From TrEMBL:
The chain crosses the membrane at residues 21-41. Catalyzes cross-linking of the peptidoglycan cell wall. The keyword Protease applies. Signal peptide: none annotated. It catalyses: Preferential cleavage: (Ac)2-L-Lys-D-Ala-|-D-Ala. Also transpeptidation of peptidyl-alanyl moieties that are N-acyl substituents of D-alanine. NCBIfam families: pbp2_mrdA (TIGR03423). It is a single-pass membrane protein. This is Peptidoglycan D,D-transpeptidase MrdA. Belongs to the transpeptidase family. MrdA subfamily. GO terms for biological process: cell wall organization; peptidoglycan biosynthetic process; proteolysis; regulation of cell shape. Pathway: Cell wall biogenesis; peptidoglycan biosynthesis.
Amino acid sequence: MPQQIRLKDHEKDARLVRNRVVVGAVAVVLLVCVLIARLYYLQVIQYDYHSTLSENNRVHVQPIPPTRGLIFDRNGVVVADNRPSFSLVMTRERAGNPGKWQDVLDVIVEVLELTPDDRALFEKRMKQGRRPFEPVPILFELNEQQIARIAVNQFRLPGVEVAAQLVRHYPQGAHFAHSVGYVGRINEKELKTLDPVNYSGTHHIGKTGIERFYEDELHGQVGYEEVETNARGRVLRVLKRTDPKPGKDIVLSLDIKLQEAAEQALGGRRGAIVALDPRTGEVLAMVSQPSFDPNLFVTGIGFKAYAELRDSIDRPLFNRVLRGLYPPGSTIKPAVAIAGLDSGVVTAGSRVFDPGYYQLPNYDHKYRNWNRTGDGWVDLDVAIMRSNDTYFYDLAHKMGIDRLSSYMNKFGIGQKVALDMFEESPGLMPSREWKRATRRQAWFPGETLILGIGQGYMQTTPLQLAQATALIANKGVWNRPHLAKTIEGQPPVDENPMENIVLRDKSDWARVTHGMEQVMHGARGTARKAAIGSQYRIAGKSGTAQVVAIKQGEKYDRNKLQERHRDHALFVAFAPADAPRIVVSVMVENGESGSGVAAPVVRQVMDAWLLDENGRLKPEFAPATVAQESAP
């Protein structure tokens, strides 16, 4: 059967082609419409958004860190300034592709011939939180040779620049390390609490001392400049600039000459000295020995150098003035005497017989006087002059722990007393409630007795002892100790003033002061040798703080104890006694004798402040002058 022949339908094919052309044309038109719509959306509707993105790629806002405020001593001597220095900075976004910046760090280490530890430190600094396009300093204080090597290899170091900046410097070195403190690099923890805007471009912050307490005043306000950059991030021109506001300058109450004299008086021994002006609360000298060079911490101290300071048995990083806790010993007796007089427990004429010890009724335990042979009948004046323990055992027993604790709190014992020293420890003034809460025990009568002579649980700082003594010198008027004399010309304001100590009989201040004068100038005074040849009257009190306990019936034998287990020597004093201008508190670790070791240190510090270069009393401290100023 023959196969049928299929004829081609030209009309049908033409129709198919026309349909395809129409569909294709419609598709093309639709695509063109979509493209036009997209172009309209991007260029018209989102014009502002994309123009801003484009502008941001071309224009960058760079922070200008403010210049940190300067710090001076009371005579205008600079103790903290800003020194120009060249640093190596790196901008991660300009170093190339993500991860490229780590390769650049390798090149830096190679070019400058640094160690793997340096490489690790650089990477740690680069990983710290920061704003985009913010340069990060990775190496400070470049020398000329290092700068030249960076310049020659600049083509290998994208995003890396040598920048000139001001770096904190302490020209007085270790003299004010524990008072002024130091600045250091901002760490991750601090970064979370700081204002990210105001600290843009700032890489250092106050870590200790005045530098930390007055950080807001010293830092200032950040500035900005808008710069135009090319595709590689290089700045082409500055479009707009807002200048930063520099930090405020601070004038301290410290005196560099008195500071040096105090350090010299301490003679290289471990200890602390603080000198106050009782009329204002200004700290005139603040020494904690041994000390350290704060410049080591500014740009980052090495691991080895820090380990030496941290692990030193002498603890140079420890601020003994503010954080050192010591039993006050007999230096607290004048305050206890004020408490006894004001509470009516004793009078100036009250007498106690001292056989060399004290016993509580119905107890066999003997609480020894330092003078084992006893002083016989002792009144208040003799008790202070001779530092008679038996008298103060009896006084503390009659007062009881509740009243004793309450009065000592008024003198600043057991609380922070300073106005601008955040590192200060509150110390400890024990009470019945304190022991029940911390030891879960009742209070025992014998514990009250030893508190009366500054032993037992009581813990004080040298600054607290100075303030307690200043209250006696000031007849109860509270002036909180402070280091800042003026901030940009304005004195600091005490927003939380302490309540003055008001006695029922104001003459009690004079009675206790007279006993303290007898310590220095009386025929039987415990520190009379330290006052020989003095051109002014001194009111003082010695103290000895036990480091290790001595068993009942045993005597203190220095030859059986290691040097660091021997008693601490303390002394507090003010002068001139009739119109005080200086209060000094001294603590010599393991010095053993307050009157023999610490009292001469107090005398040297007072002489440095009150006497002129010829060894004569300065005119402003002459009797006629002080009498005129103290008159109503």
